[in-house]
Amino acid sequence: MKQIRALSRNVKIMFIITFFQRLTNAMFYPFLAIFLSNYFSIKHTGLILLCVSLFSMISTLLGGHYTNIVGKRRILMLAELLKLMSISILLITTNMYQTFAWLIVLVLVVNNFSIGLSSPVNQTIMIEYSTDENRRFVYTLNYWIFNVSIGCGTILGATIIETHKLIVFSCLIVSSLMTITLSGFLDLKENNDVASSYKSDNESRALKEIFLGYSSVLKDNTFIKFVIAGLLFIGLELQFTNYISIHLRNTFDPQIIGEISINGVQILGILRVINTIIIVLCSTIILKIFKNVSNNSLLIYGMILFTIGITSLVFKTYIWLLVLGTILFSIGEIMYGPASQVLLSKLVEGKNVSRYMAVEDLVVKGATLLGSLGILIGAVFQKSIIIIFFLLLGVISMYLYKNIFHKIGPIDVNK
């Protein structure tokens, strides 16, 4: 509690904002495909989701560019106002889908656009208002909040999304109103010099300014190595819900524990519960054990445990091996997550943080392609090739991180 009280007010407010944003988003967006399939064919649903994702990526880049020009508070409030408007319209139009089905699509595009717009702002505030001394604690707490909010939101959404959409949409509206209100209490330092110089420039050059702004980010070789390393590692992480889920469903022979028969789908659910429990209950304990370990070492040790753990789920379908593998990759995930964020904050220190955050935010979206690639490789090649693929993702990612460490040196988080 003493560490939490010592944090910047802005960081504490962002913890509250992001908790409710993630909680309410998790009540709806994991079930977006199911929601859309009530109104459209499977083919149209796939195309709509593709368009929604594309607009979200575009808005993330726009958010990263305009955050320092317009101001963090304005971007954050604009995004939530758009979200509030879109969800309110969605609440009305879902009862008139036969006439306004494509209005639902437009509203969802606007809604995802708003989420992408605010994402770089959230991350920028976390970096700018944390210090070298408390950054690991900030990201550990943020990681814990992330998992608790996503877990609770997904459970709530799965329970009520089909029968009580009104409650889900109402929660999203309340979350937006809370964010708008709490944004007024943020004490943010805005870059007024950039804003004034931009206003005096020719508005027709806006698009060119965006490209020029991001070209400087793409020329930062160390940061690009970080992005590629993160892309590969998150791609490995997503194999749990991609290849491994299909692998367990198809190859896990039903086993009886006590009087309960467990099949492949059920064991996958059990492993996910174990993963969530370890992250929620053990994050602070595990990181306290490793508090004297350097950030760079913590990241690599976490990656090693995660790579071994996730790969072991493919070897054999013995329950004890699956549980042990899940425990290993869960501990590795706890170690890697906050450590990678501390490294990210070091890499963008003193730079145009919001633009860097926008590019980094695209990593997860790009990693979904690697997640899908695992399914494709598994369908074409033998299990041994998948194991090599998993190990390569982990090893190459670690090599890139080691290369970054060699360039920037150690990061001291225990001053």
Mean pLDDT: 82
Query: Largest beta sheet, briefly?
Result: 2 strands, antiparallel
Instruction: Name the strands of the widest sheet in spatial order.
Output: 1-2
Count all strands and give the number.
2
Unreliable stretches covering 5 or more consecutive residues:
193-198
Shape: globular
User: In angstroms, what is the radius of gyration?
Assistant: 22 Å
Q: Could you estimate the helical fraction of the residues in percent?
A: over 70%
Figure out the total of helices.
Answer: 17
Written as H for each helix and E for each strand, in order along the chain, the element string is HHHHHHHHHHHHEEHHHHH
β-strand percent reads under 5%
How far apart are the first and last residues' alpha carbons, in Å? 20 Å
Helix and strand content put the structural class at mainly alpha
Offer a concise description of the structure.
This protein has 17 helices and 2 strands. The protein has 415 residues and is an all-alpha fold.
Fold topology:
Blueprint (H helix, E strand, L loop, with lengths): L1 H4 L3 H20 L3 H6 L4 H29 L1 H22 L3 H32 L6 H26 L4 H19 L8 H8 L6 H13 L2 H17 L5 H9 L3 E3 L2 E3 L1 H26 L5 H21 L3 H30 L4 H28 L2 H26 L7
